[in-house]
Amino acid sequence: MKEAFDVAIVGAGPAGISAACVLADAGIKTIVLERGEYPGAKNVSGGVLYGHDLARIIPDYVERNCPIERNIVESRIWYLSRDAGYSLGYRDSIFATDRKHNAFTVSRAKFDRWYAEQARQKGALIVPGTVVVDLLRSERGDVTGVLTGREDGEVRAKVTLLADGINSPLAALTGFRSEPKPEEVALAVKEIIELPAEVIEQRFGVSSGDGVTTEVLGAIAGGMDSVGIIYTNRSSISLGLGANLADFADYKLKPYELLEAFKEHPMVAPLIADGRPLEYVAHWLTEGGYDAIPELYGDGYLIAGDSAMLFNGLHREGNNLAMASGKMAAETIIEALSRNDVSRTGLAGYGKKLADSYILKDLKKYRKLGGFFYHHKELFDQLPRLATSAGREMITVNGVSKKEKQKIISRNFRRGMPVLKLLRLLWQGWRAVK
Amino acid sequence: MSMKIEDKLFLDRFKVADESHLRIIDGEKCMAECPDQPCLYLCPANVYRREGDRISVNYEGCLECGSCRIGCPHLNVEWRFPRGGFGISHKFG
To answer: Model-level pTM?
Structure first.
């Protein structure tokens, strides 16, 4: 492929395709290289997407038959011990009416394929089944395109957008982003479990087409820094569990065995009972936060989405950051091409756009959060145990006075976790999110 | 009833390449210098298995997450993407 393009994009995920849509709309000659058999073949996320950022690329996505699984009307958070747990949820009918599609679930293999098709219809060239193995560079070191694994695999481009996701051997090879350290990523495994749509609606108490997301914290992974998800799709449930990769090595626990234990938790098991597993996947999430973000642009290239480590774990926002950063990268490229300056200086607008947007503002706000969870393992072990003993004591009616019960609970807490430690935990937790 | 990893991988669709995209660079290092061998448990697809005095690499079921590459304390795993179109193809993702 000796053809030259204005822009070469590595990766047909939400970041790359968003950029391709914006570029193709502006009449810019764009190629997207995707290593999977089709766009989405290699892609994984919990499965929640946000209408706001998608609508800024494809305003009529609903009319264009975007493959939406369920519109999310309720978000739940659980805090579990081994055999019990607390549940907190927020449901609002506005998310079924005026703010419908604020968040919705998708199957990435279906959504990414649909999304890439929109970019193709706008004029971008999408080439699946093609791995980018290296970057082409000028003598000065400017990026001038990509080298693919195909015969005659050079693709020349004025600008290259790296949107190849968090696991990027290309990054390690070319040095545009340093390889993450084990403690900077979480390894997540996920199963898709098939259930009839009516059964899901009964179990989660929702109307047809509506759905619920549940984020699960606590003692669900042998005391590791971890999070679980239970998301409703149309006729399946996405059940996932992630933990810090360094913890897997330190605790010597196996991801698939932990997932099985999670499925058997008394609060989880009834939701997936009689379900049939359809697929098992694995993927990283970045835990590094703001401080893990690499240089986002340079001479002839930009980085967007997961590849740029843009992920907000607390609010489980990743796809929207990918879409928004892909759009900003594309707008920067359009400006740079019109000025005929694709150097680092010419692409500097991208850094400013990101800094002025919710993306870097949010990640900066939570920059201490990843470290907070990683260094406070009591959140995943002692604290859920103590919280359970408190809940159990207060709810049990056994003739013991409430005052006496309070004494028992506070004695348990003092034994399980010194007051100073608890206060420090609360203080540092507050500082990590304030 | 608990589901085994073999059964989980059986759900997935793989187009297996003839050549492995994963390689242990120096097999002796795994035995001589790596008492913990974290690859045996952090890999979500059980690609790495202890077989006698070596670790076998069952790349056919690799989920392509990258964990072995950065999780190996000796950075002793050579890790490439499978050839374009090969490896796992998600049906749902």
So the answer is: 0.96
